[in-house]
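ok so I'm stuck.
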Amino acid sequence: MKFPSEIYKFSLLLILTLILVFVSIGLGSFSHLLHFNLSEWEIISIREIRLPRTIAAVLSGIALAVSGMQMQSVFRNPLAGPYVLGISSGGALGVAIITMGFSAFGLHLSGYAAFSSVVIASALGSLLFLLVIFAVYLRLKNPVSVLVAGVLLGSSASALVSILQYFASERDIKSFVVWTMGSLGSIDQKQLSIFIPVVIAGIILSFFLNNALNLLRAGDEYASVLGVKVKLTRILIFITTGLLTGSVMAFCGPLAFIGVAVPHITRMIFNSSDHRVIFPGVILTGAFVMLGADILSRSLIQDIQIPVNSVTSLVGIPVVFWVLFKGRKLFV
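replied:
not stuck anymore, here's the structure
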């Protein structure tokens, strides 16, 4: 690790991220914010809307980036991402049941009850699919089988969602489609009190897996000889990925391409695949990219907020193409 060079890059990323935090909080009130001349309405807006949204952007960017880094290392696949285990499909199925399935029985939720039920349904759906993935891994002890199981679970969930959409009303379908676009603006301080500790716990657990991930890159046998408990390490990685991805799904909906693109952007910046370097790197890069995407989604068109997933896709798709063309030269 080249300390002067890496410290310079980390410092620059940190400064840029802090600038975006300030921009995100002060969007629309820069002049008043700079002169500490905020109206009562602007203070309430910052405290109740912009600050929670900014924190949600930072945490979701970090969570998905760290999860993507772990999945790419475990599967040794540069296109693996945090949703590769089918966790997002479980969350989407849970939300589909709440938004479209319940209406078939005459149950309609609105307001805070509707949002809370969506969060709970997404979390339970993600957890259920994660438990299935665990069962597959414990039975077959093969990471490739886990990957296949994730794809099959995703296909099954998509089929069930399609059936629900066929029988759902236009209003319920619209509610579900809006959720699939991802949103950072619905979360409030009460939900943050749950979201923050869950993401922090996942990040801390991920930190202690960095050395094992470095060794796993060289193969299971090599890692095992050097004292890594390969099976336990993979289980812990699946747990942290499920924890981080499931929490983002529950509170913010599915956010596309962040988990796939950010680890590669970080490797390009630091020219390294050492997890001791790229772990803090993906934390800063994930927060920066997600903040930037959210700011663009709010400011590209005046008085209109475009879906944040549209912006993250525009950022992520070119990176995925770069990964495809780069091939074996990637630092995975």
